[in-house]
Give the backbone structure.
Amino acid sequence: MRFILHILLTVLLTLATQIGGIVYLLTIIILHKIKVKKRIYRFLTFIFLYLSVTFLVVPNIAPYFGRVKITNNIYVQNHSLITTLCNRNYVKPKLNASLQNIGNHFKQRYPTLTLVYLDANFPFIDKFPLLPHLSHSDGKKIDLSFLYTEAGKFTNKKPTTSGYGIFEEPKSSEYNQTNRCKQKGFWQYDYSKFVTFGSFNADLKFSLKPTKYLIQLILQQKSTQKVFIEPHLKYRMNLNNAKIRFHGCKAVRHDDHIHFQIW
């Protein structure tokens, strides 16, 4: 049973963070050699090694795999520390440069707002799955948060811990892609409502103008290949650009975030 538990933890940590499984196995080997048995010491050893590798080792090795850690500053910020702790904040250098350019121009128009990103990619190995996403596996994809207002004023707050799961639903006059996909049997299409990891800021309202401007800045980038948002939001924001695509019913709905990818 202990062996099975170690295998399960290794697999889960690898799927969640890419490097967690390796660090876990390394911890077991070290603790076995120095004969540490108290669980609290074993746990603290793992945490120390994991944080050391995440913040000191991985950023220096990732460039050899063609990826860099996203540069956080006053223009570009991650929504949650979990993104960083789970190594989900790595992209191709070209995508990092585009994010900085977009964030800089966005800040000029909306000085109180910041470009906030959600999940990007793991630091190593193309085609390594970044669950639960289907395509975040080559360093070229990233999810960006919508913009919101609170009590009529712009805010950088988001409605959930994960940044996902609170949808800007279609109006009665707009096409409902979610219903269409679920009618076709794609039950998972709105399952991201179960991965909010806590919802809050109930008074937040979707802000159309800055969100539209952010998408327009993305579309202006020469490196941009595709942008995914729900059809009803494309219609509502009057966005007509061939780079804005429908992601397909096999994915999940995109009226809680913007999916942005480069060539």
Q: What stands out?
A: The longest strand covers residues 257-262. The chain has two domains: 2-63, 68-262.
